[in-house]
Amino acid sequence: MKHESPKTAHTSEVVVDVRACTKIYHQGEASIHAVDNVSLSVRRGEFTVLVGPSGSGKTTLLNLIGALDAPDKGTLAIEGRDLGALSRSQLALLRRDRIGFVFQAYNLIPVLSAAENTEFVLALQGQPPTKRRARALDVLKAVGLEGYQARRPNQLSGGQQQRVAIARAIAPSPAIVLADEPTANVDSETGERLLDLMEALNRNEHATFLFSTHDPRVVARAKRIITMKDGRVVADTTVPPDAHQGPPAPC
Amino acid sequence: MILTLAWRNVWRNSRRTLINVVSIALGVWLTVTSVGLADYSYRQMIDDSARMGLGHVTIQPIDYLDAPSLKKTIAETATRQESIAAHRQTRAAATRITGQAMFASASRSIGGSFLAIDPKQESRDINIFLRSLVEGEAFTNSEVRAVLVGEVLAKNLKLSVGRKLILTAVDRHGEVVSELFRVCGIFRTGVVEIDGRMAVIPIERARQMLHYAPDEATMISVFVDDYRNADVVRDLLATVIPRDAASVLTWRQTQPELASLSDVDRGMNYLFLFLLGLLIAAGVLNTSLMSVLERRHEFGIMMAIGTRPGQLSAMILIEAASMGFVGLLAGAILCVPWAYYLIAVGLDMSSVMGEDYTAANVLIDPIWHITLYPGRMFAIAAMLFTLTLIAALYPAFTAARARPIESLRDAA
């Protein structure tokens, strides 16, 4: 699988390409268009948020982009690879190598330490233990968890767990990090810190982020805001750099 | 990493894992005990049966098995016995003559069998009658007119040590011949059919009585250290003994009743072990499946971040293998002192089965010991381990076939 360093990539490169995607859920005799004929693309280095009311299709769209679910209509490509043409195993490899996930509920593996959680994907990639551990420690340091590497998830606060989740997502240097309501389960101060962290990763490591959120603090930091309603994209706004007021705090 | 993860997962619900480990360990204990007891009893029965005359491998005249007769003999027994006894695959070999006879004392006559032996070739180790002497002494010269008689035969003929017995048989020419013997010892094997019908006489005296040549006999009994090697020794001896000179047969061929008994018993034993294995496997299946269903959301996360379905299956199989390995280890630890006790002391079952329980004309020792063959122990461990893995196949398949999005929604 092609694995290009983000630092050498062009920011104009399309990472995610969604074309006329529709996802329909059936509840009894009713059909719900969770995602309805959506087309959009995300370029490398973007810091994009999906906003909209509950049930507008944000999470479903993230799941489709994350190759966790398949659209009923339309096509979806990550770095030019059509997801519909890939087998289950190939999709797993794509998620492993090119997509990072940050979930609302952290979702760390409870029996692994912070360092082991962070290096888990690297281990799946078959990286040697020494190399992957060094990378995990680097990333944990980057997210402010130096010295916490041996702790298990139940020995960490919610914010710390979410930092580990972010570290796990960015450790393999994916093409895009998909974050579903990443600040929903943490207090406002921790939420601000997490956003500072992700913003810094976006800025310093050129990591591409796509969030779904209700949180106005996340929206305030976005470079691009995609608004969804009833499964459709109703607005797609690029925020001018000078309009951005988010504090560029280091992590 | 998958290995580490699997091992830690095993101990996430330590109580449930321990219940499984204990059930596997008890399964090992039961299986080892059952197989060990059975192997001991087979070995004892087959060895005792061999000591009663035929040995583990018998060299006898062609067609003797179908129609035994004192007219049928094998020649050159002396040189053959010596070379066979010296072979590294055999423990001992003894030239013997066996046949039907009429025993008469001053008071009455009884029909029975005699076994003629060369005391120089015999020992308590290969001859159950020498081992079972309860009165008098065995003869040490093969030409004396001495006889060992079974306890029941002695009682029925009202004989005691020093009294006379007349043995009448049909010689190699079909003539009725008689010889006077004096009782030098009385044996008790515990098998009434043997103790009431058997007498043991010196082989040279028998040869003279039956008009045999000096190295003629009806069989050479060959003994091996492990009865399971009888086939190997039979094949070996068959290559050195001309096919038209004699038949070389194993205990299975000379004593089909005993072979059938042990085969049927072994079959029942294996069936019991298989059912036991199924019970253990059901326990592992239950634990593994519960563990998989409880972790569906976690599996969803693992798949989302790139774990392939095969890796997920492998993790679950490794979890089952780890549990199986720990269970086998615990079982082995449990078995060591128990096996030591059974080998050294044994279980006294005489109150249940009495002192003279017999099967296929062989006395069964009421003190139960065990015999542990390394190969059999390895097979037990392999069987239980394999069943544990087989039991985890369905949970592993269940986890692998789940779609990530469905697993993520589960209990999210």
Features:
heterodimer; A: 251 residues; alpha/beta; Rossmann fold; 27% strand; globular; disordered N terminus; disordered C terminus; B: 412 residues; alpha+beta; 2 domains; 15 helices; 53% helix
Describe this protein's structure.
The complex is a heterodimer of chains A (251) and B (412). Chain A is an alpha/beta fold and 251 residues long. In chain A, 32% of the residues lie in helices and 27% in strands. Chain A is built from seven helices and ten strands. Chain B is of the alpha+beta class. Chain B folds into two domains: 197 residues, no CATH class; 167 residues, no CATH class. Chain B has 15 helices and 14 strands. In chain B, the strands form three sheets. Chain B has a six-stranded mixed beta barrel. Chain B has a two-stranded antiparallel ribbon with strand order 11-14. In chain B, a hairpin with a 2-residue loop joins strand 12 and strand 13. In chain B, helix 12 packs antiparallel against helix 14. Chain B is elongated, with a radius of gyration of 30 Å.
List the topology elements.
The complex is a heterodimer of chains A (251) and B (412).
Chain A: E1 14-27, E2 30-43, E3 47-51, H1 58-65, E4 73-78, E5 81-82, H2 88-98, E6 99-102, H3 114-124, H4 129-142, H5 158-170, E7 176-180, H6 188-204, E8 209-212, H7 216-221, E9 224-229, E10 232-238
Parallel strand pairs in A: 3-8, 3-9, 6-7, 7-8
Antiparallel strand pairs in A: 1-2, 1-4, 4-5, 9-10
Helix pairs in contact in A: 3-4, 3-5, 4-5, 5-6
Chain B: H1 2-10, H2 14-54, E1 57-60, H3 77-86, E2 92-104, E3 109-117, H4 128-131, E4 133-136, E5 146-150, H5 151-156, E6 164-170, E7 176-187, H6 192-195, E8 198-202, H7 203-210, E9 219-223, H8 230-240, E10 247-250, H9 251-254, H10 256-294, H11 296-304, H12 309-344, E11 347-348, H13 350-353, E12 358-359, E13 362-363, E14 367-368, H14 374-401, H15 404-409
Parallel strand pairs in B: 3-8, 5-7
Antiparallel strand pairs in B: 1-9, 1-10, 2-3, 2-6, 2-9, 4-7, 5-8, 6-7, 11-14, 12-13
Helix pairs in contact in B: 1-12, 2-10, 2-12, 2-14, 10-14, 12-14
